[in-house]
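Sharing a chain and its predicted structure for anyone who wants a worked example. Both blocks are below, sequence first, tokens second.
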Amino acid sequence: MGKDKKDLMIQMGMPAAEGAIAGDALKEAQLRRAIALAGKRASIAGAAFGAHPSWEILMQLSLAECMGQLVSLRQLSETLRANPSTLARIMNVMATEGSVVLCQRDEDTEIYAELTEASRQAIADYFQSI
């Protein structure tokens, strides 16, 4: 991880250590399995019925945080194969509702997303319950 990314993570209150996790329940394998299952669900039910964009976004952000990475909206759009303007609308709603925080560095045109503490705790609670 680059120094700039670590500095930004520290400014945002995120763990900056490589492989840092947000609570014991957020294990990388669990997150990868949840993401894979969401993809299987969508392939069975069809994208219109099987996709849950906000959940998939939360899982991707959790996985990135678990791996000590920041995720830009551009990266998230590519990973989820989502239309960038649709993703931006969803992310703005999620930010308004307090699920994520969107930020931008002065010298960077990228917009980054991170989980709020409430989302981290809710996801940790979810994984503890399954």
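Comments welcome. The CA atoms of residues 34 and 123 lie 11 Å apart.
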